[in-house]
Amino acid sequence: MSEVEMTSEEKRGKIVAEFRVLNQRVQQLRSQLLDLSGEVTEHERVLKVLEEADDDRVTYRLIGEVSISVS
């Protein structure tokens, strides 16, 4: 059925369905934004702690199940 042949009720239903799809996408993007904002905050905290650490301090990095010394 073409756009011309659709009744106003069918057009309204189509618009509402499209709106719901777009609204769901907005909610997904908001959720992703909140997740990324949390990660940014966490990374900023880690950077702050690392900047305050002594330069001669030995650090370790966990790779898989092995702890590796990093200078």
TrEMBL record:
Stored SUPFAM superfamilies: Prefoldin
Coiled coil region boundaries: 19-53
GO MF annotation list: unfolded protein binding
Biological processes, Gene Ontology terms: protein folding
Pfam families xref list: Prefoldin_2
Key words of the record: Chaperone, Coiled coil
GO cellular component, one term: prefoldin complex
Family in the record: Belongs to the prefoldin subunit beta family.
Name of the featured protein: Prefoldin beta-like protein
Gene source species: Kipferlia bialata
Record lineage: Eukaryota, Metamonada, Carpediemonas-like organisms, Kipferlia
